[in-house]
Amino acid sequence: MAKNEARRTALADAGISVLAREGSRGLTHRAVDAAAGVPTGTTSNYFRNREALITGIFERIGTRLAPRADDLEAAAREQPSRELFTRYVRDIVRRLTTNREVTLALYELRLEAARRPELAAPLVEWQHAAFEADIAFNEAAGLPGGRREIALFHYAIEGFVFDRLTSPIDPETPADEVIDDFVAGLLR
Questions:
Q1: Which of 17, 53, 59, 180 qualifies as a cystine partner to 47, CB 3.0-4.6 A?
Q2: Each residue of 35-52: pLDDT tens digit?
Q3: What is the DSSP secondary-structure string of 83-132?
Q4: Which phi-psi region, left, alpha or beta, contains residue 135 (left: φ > 0; alpha: ψ -120 to 50)?
């Protein structure tokens, strides 16, 4: 594998753009080369096959959607409260909706993995790591709810974000209002 990490990152970002624009069928090494503006064959030097490309894209999606470390540290120092949890949820929704291209690419890859189980391993690994990190954050911050509540949280947030990024059923209701109602229901 080539060692230039900046180039690898740029290629993964180009792959994200291709996925968001063209869907999973459009994700080819040549399409990524073209999107990145690099010579033909560059992507295959960094990602030897489609599975390696998808794994690299998952890693980059995780980096681009991750909360900032200083935000997590600041939240962990606060007293647990409904307000803290609400801000945390709002931040997640903000990151997912303002990084529209990244989130759409993630959904494309999830659908691709559902159709092609051999590609599911990197997705499952990434999802489990994110889920465990959310559980750990929740516990470290002393927020209410355990593993089951965090799973419910993921189901609700992913459905809400998918709705907002595609064809919203209620676009007039501000996201913060939906989140407030969601938090009230989850943290009864």
A1: 53
A2: 999 999 999 999 999 989
A3: HHHHHHHHHHHHHHHHTHHHHHHHHHHHHHHHH-GGGHHHHHHHHHHHHH
A4: alpha
